[in-house]
Amino acid sequence: MLKHRGFPGRLSGTDFQFVIRRANPKGVTPITRRERYRDRRAPDRRADAAFMRALWEHFGEEPFERGNLDAGRLSWLFGREVVAVDESFDPKSYEALLRIDAEVAERSFPEAFNGSSGDDADDDWDDWD
């Protein structure tokens, strides 16, 4: 499993994790498309935006390997902002290749691309663990 060095481990001050420390000995957690409803809590929406910003800053529009990125956090973006590179995508593989659909991602999370927090909270994007 590829470990993405320099990628934030979680959203600072929360339990929202962005990466896993080690491979799951019981098997790889599959990436699935999770539906995001309008009534999601503000902290969940902030975590999605922060994760999207971290992905954009780390990978840009280049394809990237899933590696140690958290499957649960990826699943909130999968199928919309983060897509499979090709049809041979295996949702249960740490080597699966993904890419950011920049147009969709910027429409969904403008704050992740322009640096603003999107709400009145004083989010410090550079204060990730």
Task: Give a short summary of the structure.
The chain has 129 residues and is an alpha+beta fold.
Which features does this protein show?
129 residues; alpha+beta; 4 helices; globular
Mean pLDDT over all positions: 86
Treating each run of at least 4 consecutive H or I residues as one helix, how many helices?
Answer: 4
Rg for CA atoms: 14 Å
Distance between the termini: 21 Å
What is the H-and-E element order? HEHEEHH
Category from helices, strands and their pairing? alpha+beta
User: How would the global form be characterised?
Assistant: globular
Strand neighbour order, sheet with most strands: 1-3-2
Biggest sheet: strands, sense, closure? 3 strands, antiparallel
Number of strands: 3
Percent strand equals 5-15%
The poorly predicted ranges are: 117-129
Helix percentage: 25-40%
Write the layout of secondary structure elements.
Blueprint: H1 42-59, E1 64-65, H2 71-75, E2 82-84, E3 97-100, H3 102-108, H4 110-114
Antiparallel strand pairs: 1-3, 2-3
What does this structure look like?
Helix content is 27%, strand content 7%. It is globular and about 35 Å long. With 129 residues, it is an alpha+beta fold. It contains four helices and three strands, in the order αβαββαα. The chain has a domain at 42-113. It has a three-stranded antiparallel beta sheet with strand order 1-3-2. The two termini are 21 Å apart. 22% of the residues are buried. Residues 117-129 have low confidence and may be disordered. It has helices at 42-59, 71-75, 102-108, 110-114; strands spanning 64-65, 82-84, 97-100.
